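User: Hi! I have a protein structure encoded as tokens and I'd like to know what sequence might fold into it. I'm fairly new to this, so please keep things simple.
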């Protein structure tokens, strides 16, 4: 007597099997966002379409989605699945809310900055310019030169300090004292660094002295602790086996650090240096005290005042002339140029880290 398998009459759907279809959460999210958009569009009826609140639409839509996905998942799936979907939606909503200020900031700066983002802005200074026109080439050069000098001062000091703390000063009182001072310096206000450098030069040269090198020194006071802390942590995670292998071959300690430890951590060290540069390149208060502001190009760090993008942006927005729109447009364009400079520095750092990182393949 032969038996034959009986095929099921129908295949149960994913919904009846206790799982929502993959498209269901996305469809529910679109519906919730559409409802929130409708509510805010109705509230803004008769007003300027540019006043439509996109941020609150996203926030309200995400809150509505979290409530509905929990209810729908509880009914169609189970309480455990509903809790999982709720936590996933909550984490995703937190990410979106954290991203909103950044996106809004970039959008605002780009939209307003493109008005004066032209060839004149990067080829002209404000020398003999009273109203509209002019540019920020003097401020751009000042920012690059002052930041470059601050980097040249800060990186060797910060890197050698971190090498001492990791390789030579482990467990010593001097290393603990340096670590404490670095932690304190990390939290000092930027204007304090500017006042410190201004006071030193006022004692050495005279009151009212302002030069580009003073700004570089003020920025280096802020950069050094960032470089030290970042490089120190990266040097600590270099495996001790690499050092011991070099010592076993008779390589002296200083050469082991130079040829083994630093190349292993070079990618992370480069990132920490770029973070330090990004930390100080937009500082206004110390540069306003130590460098001042001029309307023409000055590339000599050791003579006279210089212009920088943060101070230029501040002065254009704080003290607009006639027409005021021209000054505000220059301020937005200067802010956009500063963001682009930081972005380029980050890209260059990524390339350098990738080129000089140790090769792991055979």
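Assistant: Happy to help. Inverse folding works backwards from shape to sequence: for each of the 362 positions I chose a residue that suits the local structure. Here it is:
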């Amino acid at each position: 007597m032969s038996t034959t398998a009986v095929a099921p009459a129908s295949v149960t759907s994913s919904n009846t099997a206790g799982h929502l279809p993959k498209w269901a959460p996305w469809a529910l999210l679109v519906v919730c966002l559409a409802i929130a958009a409708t509510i805010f569009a109705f509230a803004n009826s008769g007003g300027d379409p540019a006043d439509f609140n996109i941020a609150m639409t996203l926030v309200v839509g995400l809150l509505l989605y979290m409530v509905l996905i929990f209810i729908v998942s509880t009914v169609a799936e189970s309480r455990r699945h509903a809790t999982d979907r709720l936590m996933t939606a909550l984490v995703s909503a937190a990410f979106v809310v954290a991203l909103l200020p950044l996106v809004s900031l970039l959008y605002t700066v780009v939209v307003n900055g493109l008005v004066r983002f032209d060839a004149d802005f990067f080829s002209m200074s404000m020398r003999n310019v009273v109203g509209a026109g002019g540019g920020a080439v003097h401020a751009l050069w000042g920012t690059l030169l002052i930041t470059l000098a601050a980097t040249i001062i800060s990186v060797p000091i910060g890197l050698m300090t971190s090498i001492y703390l990791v390789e030579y000063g482990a467990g010593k009182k001097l290393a603990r004292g340096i670590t404490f001072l670095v932690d304190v310096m990390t939290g000092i206000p930027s204007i304090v660094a500017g006042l410190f450098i201004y006071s030193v030069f006022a004692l050495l040269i005279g009151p009212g002295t302002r030069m580009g090198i003073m700004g570089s020194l003020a920025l280096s006071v802020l950069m050094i602790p960032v470089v030290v802390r970042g490089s120190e942590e990266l040097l600590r995670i270099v495996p001790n086996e690499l050092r011991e292998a070099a010592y076993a071959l008779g390589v002296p300690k200083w050469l082991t650090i130079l040829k083994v430890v630093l190349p292993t951590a070079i990618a992370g060290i480069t990132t920490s240096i770029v973070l330090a540069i990004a930390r100080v390149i937009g500082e206004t208060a110390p540069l306003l005290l130590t460098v001042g502001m001029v309307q023409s190009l000055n590339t000599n760090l050791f003579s006279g005042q210089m212009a920088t993008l943060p101070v230029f942006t501040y002065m254009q927005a704080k003290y607009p002339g006639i027409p005021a729109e021209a000054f505000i447009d220059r301020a937005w364009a200067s802010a956009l140029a500063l963001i682009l400079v930081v972005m380029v520095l980050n890209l260059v750092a990524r390339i350098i880290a990738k080129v000089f990182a140790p090769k792991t393949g055979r």
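A useful reference point when you look it over: Residues 137-356 form a domain with the MetI-like fold fold (CATH 1.10.3720.10). Feel free to ask if any position seems puzzling.
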